[in-house]
Structures are given as structure tokens and as C-alpha cells.
Specification:
alpha/beta, 14 strands, binds pyridoxal-5'-phosphate
């Protein structure tokens, strides 16, 4: 059995090696069983994938192109570097692939409402967008602290017709919003679907998210074959929860000669403890939380540790059980890039290629830039650019200590 086949037809249901599973309250069992069944039917129905592709083509600019970074490749002097442009999707990132796909499943289930939780707000905006398009009611749970930090995203979710509920329990951040979403779902599951944002959580979510996100890898594979006539030597993707990485890697999983590299958030450096890595350097440890088994960034007692990254979308304690497994068997190599390296890589790509990547995505670029110089010009590297960086303007301006920007903010504060 090939690796891809093992992910979609796993011998032990819901498990990827030791990782995955569904550790859930009994009350959610029936609804997860129903979701598993609807998803099984959908993926065995070839018209479903055709419908999904059609929606993505007409609503989200798919297939997204691959771009050869001619200038950067020349400057670095190693392999030819290609970018998979998920930043050109509607709503600016790969998240819409998963969200629209789940929306189509909601239709098949005949449900009328969706809920989601969001930290940085990107998944909330994508879900609110899908709900507006498909005519579904939408509630987004968000930690009260994150609501304050992510005002622009909250504004757009509300304009798109979603109700945004600030959660004040605990630390009032993502994990508290997850708890609140589960509480809602336990009462509302008859008419409500919980749109999980990444390839994590209890079975069947990792599988569903991987299934829709594999469109990134499948397109990339074909595009490289068409334009350069060969597969890449190496593929890089950033790893938060792991959905864009899993999706991109799935296009190449059974091509043993293609090396797959996931890049986690190294924050201020793995040695400082101030980061959001789990698999890199094995700084995380296996455990069960939030309904599934994987590597978590936790202490010896199983208490989740505080994560830090310049990229809000990588700031998560768990990681996809699919990637945990692929890393363990050595199919995927996991590295980490620091905040500083990411800012440098971002500047470099803006200046040499005119592309503003999301801070999350730029982790993949930073990881690649460290290594491609040692490769040769006949080699090919593919980097997943999971999203665009417009949303990061405040963080980037801050990190670059841009004086004019700081004056602009000070003037604005003085006027109000
Ligand atoms: C949310 C997000 C990520 C992290 O999520 P994954 O599930 O790891 O892909 C990465 N890049 C962008 C642009 C995002 O918005």
C-alpha cells in the first residue's frame, strides 16, 4: 500500500501510525459518525470532486499558478525555485480550499448552520465567506484577547454576516474558543456543522482537510511536469496545524525521490523555549488533547506551553497527526525558521520578486533559502506560498521598525 493510500484508506480507522484517533465526548459520537459517512460517500462519488474543482475554479482562481523565482534563484545560485501561489486564492490563502469543500459536505448533510473557532481570524474570515456564498448561518468563536488583536478580521466577518462571539474564559485565546465551539456543537449538532480549520482534531477531520487540500499538491505536480518536464527535488511548506503542508506533500508522497520538508515556527529560537515548534528537534512530545493524539508543545505534566511566533497562523500547540506520522517514519523532514530569518526572507522576496508573502508562508521560504545555495542549477525546488502578506502589515512594519509607519500611527492616535 502506498503512503497516500494508507492515509485515505488507513488499516486502523482514523490512525496514521500511532497518531490520530477520535477522543471525544460520547455525545458527539453520532454526529462524527454521520460526518464520516457523508464524507465517505462523497469521496467515492466522482462528481463530488468535479463539483469541488468547479467551485474553486469559478470562485477562487484555481488552478493557482506556479511562479519561477528567476531573480531569487539567480541571486542564491543554487536550484531553480518555484512558488505554488496559494496567496492568489479568494480570501488570500489556502484556507478557502478546505472551507469551501466542507461547505459542500454541509449541503450534502442538509445542515443550515456552521460554527468555527479562529485565533488569528483568517479561518473565521474564510468560513464567514463560505457561509455567505452557500447561504448558511454562521457563528465564529474567538478569544476576547484575539478579538482585540484582530479587529480588521472581526470587522470583515461581521460584514460578511457572521456572528462573532468573544470568549472570555481562561486565557481568552484560541484554546478557549475551541472549548466554546465544542460546547455549542454538543447542543446544535442536529442542524450545525463544525468547520475545523486545519488537518487536526478527531477523525475524520484530519482526513477531510487533507482530502480537500491535496488539490494544492496535485495541481503543483502536474504544473511542474508540464512546465519543466520533471518532478521537484525538494518541496518546502510551512507547518502550523499542517493543512497546507499536508495538501502540498500529498502530490508527491509516493514519489520517493522527492524530498519533503516542513518548516515550523522557530520563534526566538528553539533553545529559548519561545516558539511554536512541536516536531522540529522533537521539542514536543506525544499526547492526547483536543480530541486526538499527536505531538504537542507541552511540559512534562502534559500542561500545554505558551507558544510564540511572529506569524499568528502558526501559533498552535498541536500538529496534524498525518505529519506527525510522516515525520516519524522519515518521509517528511521537519525544520524550524526563526522570526528573524522569516523577516529577512520576506524582505528579500519583496525586493527581488515583488511578491509579499504571508509571515506564515515565509517560514517555508526561509527554510529553503538556508539550503538551496548548496544545490545545483539543474535541480528544482518547489515552495508552497500558503498566503499573501497584506494582512500582516502591522506586524511587518513593526518588525522592520519603519519610522514613517510609526509616525503615521502616532499621528492617527493623536487625532482621535
Ligand atoms: C492558517 C495559515 C497557515 C497555517 O495553517 P496550516 O494548517 O498549517 O496550513 C499557514 N499559512 C497561512 C497563510 C495561513 O493563513
Amino acid at each position: 500500500m502506498g503512503l497516500t493510500d494508507a492515509i485515505f484508506n488507513h488499516p486502523r480507522l482514523g490512525y496514521y501510525g500511532e497518531y490520530g484517533g477520535a477522543f471525544i465526548p460520547e455525545i458527539l459520537r453520532t454526529t462524527l459518525d454521520e460526518l464520516t459517512q457523508v464524507f465517505e460517500d462523497a469521496r467515492r462519488d466522482s462528481s463530488f470532486w468535479t463539483e469541488f474543482e468547479q467551485v474553486m475554479r469559478t470562485y477562487s482562481c484555481r488552478p493557482t499558478p506556479i511562479t519561477l523565482l528567476e531573480n531569487l534563484s539567480r541571486e542564491v545560485g543554487g536550484a531553480r525555485i518555484f512558488l505554488k501561489r496559494e496567496d492568489l486564492n479568494h480570501t488570500g490563502a489556502h484556507k478557502v480550499n478546505n472551507v469551501m469543500g466542507q461547505g459542500l459536505l454541509v449541503r450534502r448533510m442538509g445542515k443550515s448552520r456552521v460554527i468555527a473557532e479562529t485565533g488569528a481570524g483568517q479561518h473565521g474570515v474564510a468560513t464567514a465567506t463560505m457561509a455567505a456564498r452557500l447561504g448558511l448561518e454562521c457563528t465564529i468563536y474567538m478569544g476576547a484577547v484575539d478579538v482585540e488583536r484582530q479587529r480588521p478580521n472581526v470587522f470583515w466577518m461581521e460584514q460578511l454576516g457572521a456572528e462573532v462571539v468573544p470568549v472570555t474564559d481562561g486565557s481568552a485565546t484560541l484554546k478557549d474558543a475551541i472549548n466554546e465551539s465544542l460546547r455549542d456543537w454538543a447542543y446544535s449538532m442536529a442542524d450545525t456543522h463544525y468547520v475545523l480549520g486545519t488537518a487536526c482534531g478527531p477523525h475524520p477531520f484530519p482526513q477531510i482537510v487533507a482530502y480537500f487540500q491535496r488539490i494544492i499538491g496535485e495541481e503543483s505536480r502536474q504544473q511542474l511536469l508540464d512546465s519543466v518536464g520533471r518532478l521537484p527535488d525538494r518541496v518546502y511548506a510551512c507547518v502550523g496545524g499542517g493543512s497546507n503542508a499536508t495538501g502540498l506533500f500529498l502530490g508527491f508522497l509516493d514519489d520517493a525521490a522527492v524530498e519533503l520538508v516542513g518548516v515550523e515556527a522557530g520563534g526566538r529560537g528553539l533553545e529559548t523555549g519561545d516558539h511554536a515548534s512541536r516536531l522540529a528537534g522533537l521539542v514536543g512530545t506525544p499526547g492526547v488533547a483536543q480530541g486526538y493524539k499527536t505531538f504537542f508543545f507541552q511540559d512534562a505534566e502534559g500542561q500545554m506551553r505558551h507558544t510564540h511566533s511572529v506569524a499568528a497562523g502558526l501559533d498552535y500547540i498541536g500538529v496534524s497527526p498525518i505529519l506527525a506520522h510522516l515525520a516519524e517514519i522519515g518521509r517528511v523532514r521537519i525544520e524550524a525558521a526563526t522570526d528573524q530569518e522569516v523577516i529577512e526572507a520576506l524582505k528579500r522576496m519583496m525586493r527581488s520578486e515583488g511578491i509579499i508573502g504571508a509571515l506564515e508562508s515565509t517560514h517555508a521560504l526561509a527554510g529553503a533559502l538556508r539550503e538551496v545555495g548548496a544545490m545545483t542549477p539543474d535541480q528544482v525546488v518547489l515552495i508552497g506560498l500558503s498566503g499573501r502578506g497584506d494582512k500582516d502589515i502591522f506586524t511587518i512594519a513593526d518588525a522592520l521598525e519603519d519610522e514613517n509607519w510609526q509616525r503615521f500611527l502616532a499621528d492617527k492616535a493623536a487625532r482621535s
